[in-house]
Amino acid sequence: MSADAPITQDVMTIPRKLPEGPVNLVGLTRDKLREALLAIGTPEKQAKMRVNQIWQWIYQWGVRDFAEMTNLAKAYRAQLAEHFVIEVPEMVSKQVSADGTRKYLVRIAGGHEVEVVYIPETDRGTLCVSSQVGCTLTCSFCHTGTQKLVRNLTAGEIVGQIMMARDDLGEWPEPGVGTGEAGPRLLSNIVLMGMGEPLYNFDNVRDAMKIAMDGEGISLSRRRITLSTSGVVPEIAKCAEEIGCLLAVSFHATTDEVRDKLVPINKRWNIEALLDALRAYPKLSNSERITFEYVMLKDVNDSDEDARRLVKLIKGIPAKINLIPFNEWPGSPYQRSDWDRIEKFADIIYKAGYASPIRTPRGEDIMAACGQLKSATERARKSRAQIAAETGISQQ
Ligand code: SAH
Ligand code: SF4
Q1: Does the keyword Translocase apply (predicted)?
Q2: What are phi and psi of 291, to 5 degrees?
Q3: Full-model pTM
Q4: Catalytic residue among 115, 157, 235, 378
C-alpha cells in the first residue's frame, strides 16, 4: 500500500430509492413526526401530545401496529394506519458465536444489506450499529473499506437496527409491567462502529441518536453511546454540539507517514489537525474521556517508540486508549501483533497514566469482530453493470 493510495476508493454510490406508499414513522424527528401528523389533519393543539404518545408506543413498548395504541381514539388509530407504517430493517440471518456474540445481517430498502453485532458482557450489552452500506474511505486494514457499494442509511434504518435487536433479544417491556427498571438492559450501550463512517452521514446519525437518547425514545443515556470516526475533522465539533455522545477516534498510528497509509483520510486532516479538534471535544460535549482506538499491526505500528510517541501526542487530552488486536479477514495485508508485544505496548501506556485495555476479540469465528464487517450482497461480487441495472443509475 503506497502513501499515494486514494482517500476514497472507486465506489459506486447508490442513490436511495424512496419507497413508495405509506410513510414509515421510525426515525422521524419530533418535528418531522409533528408535520406528518398535522398533514393528516391532527388538530394543532393535540399534535405535541400525539407525538409523545406515538413515540412511546414505538420506542418504549416496541409496538408495530397502530391498533395496539390504546390511549388513542379508535378512529384516529385507523387514520394513522391508513397513512403510516412502523417498519424496521428485515433480519435476513443471524449467527451466534461461541462467545455469545450475535451477528445479524439486515436488509434495507433497495435490497442492500448491512451487518449489526450484539456483544453481551457481564455488566452491559453493546450493539454495534452500521451507518452506511460499505464505506467511501479506504483504511488499508479494514474489510468494510474494500466494499464497492456505498449508500447512507436513513435515520429510520439506523434506529431500526436497535429496534430489530430488541426484537431478537425479546427485550420490549410487557404493557402494564414497566420499562425494565428491574435490572440492566440486555441492550444497554450503542457503538457506531459497524459499517461506514458515521460523520459522513451526519444528519441521519444525529437524528437516530437523538431518538436513542430521548426519554420518550429508546431512552439510553448519552454516556452509553459512542461514535467512532476515522477523523473527519470539520464534523467533530458538530458531533459534540449536536449529538453530545462519547467519541472514539481511529488513531492507529503515531506518525503522519504511517497514518497516511493506514487511515488515508489523514492526508486530508493530519494528526495535528485531528488532535486540535479532539482537544476541544470534551469541553464542547460535556463528555468524559475520548477513546483512542489503536489497532495492533505486527511490525507496522506496535513498537515501544510508537507507544511513547502516542503518550506524548495525546498529552493534555482526557483519554483512554483501546488497543485492538488486528482482526484478520480473507486476504488482509497485515498480521496481528504478537501477544507479548501488545502487552508491552499496553504497559508503557499504562505507566504513563492512561487506561489501556486490550479489547478482547469477540465473535471472530463468525467474522463479527471490528473491521471484519462486509455485507453479503457485496461478497457475491456483482458486476458494476449488474449493480447499475438494479439501482437504475447510469454507469460513469
Ligand atoms: N468508520 C469508523 C467506524 C467503524 S470501524 C471508524 O473508522 O472509526 C470501527 C473500528 O474498527 C475502527 O477503529 C476501525 O479502525 C477498526 N478496525 C477496522 N478494521 C479492523 C480490523 N481488521 N481489525 C481491528 N480493528 C479494525
Ligand atoms: Fe471506513 Fe472506518 Fe473501515 Fe476506515 S476503518 S474504511 S473509515 S469503516
Answers
A1: no
A2: -90, 125
A3: 0.91
A4: 115
